[in-house]
Automatic annotation (TrEMBL):
PANTHER family: 4FE-4S FERREDOXIN-TYPE DOMAIN-CONTAINING PROTEIN, ADENYLYLSULFATE REDUCTASE, BETA SUBUNIT. Signal peptide: none annotated. The keyword Metal-binding applies. Residues 1-30, 31-61 form the 4Fe-4S ferredoxin-type domain. GO terms for molecular function: 4 iron, 4 sulfur cluster binding; metal ion binding. This is 4Fe-4S dicluster domain-containing protein. The keyword Protein transport does not apply. Keywords: 4Fe-4S, Iron, Iron-sulfur, Metal-binding.
Amino acid sequence: MSIAIDSMKCRACGKCLDVCPGSLIVRGEDKKAVIRYPKDCWGCASCIKECPFEAISYYLGADIGGMGSQMTVHTEGDLLHWRIKKTDGTIETIVVNKKDSNKY
Ligand code: SF4
Ligand code: SF4
């Protein structure tokens, strides 16, 4: 599992750098975020949830059945809207209430 950072959406706020527990994200020459060691990412999703501009997505590879889909998240209050964009262009959205996160 890894993440992908869309440099067109990144506004160089630095929030993802601060939250990555493995310090895997650094600033590029343009000050925008770059993942340094994609293979070391263990998919904790901290950076994805922290980015205010939805510039970071999960890359869901074939190894976990994602076949190249990408997943982003949008936060509205306590609700996380996980948006999965599949390779055929279709989009699926899963809404999770953060208050329910310890139920499962
Ligand atoms: S998903 Fe977690 S481990 Fe991977 S780059 Fe983001 S914050 Fe770091
Ligand atoms: S949190 Fe988002 S906008 Fe800010 S530096 Fe990271 S990728 Fe760029």
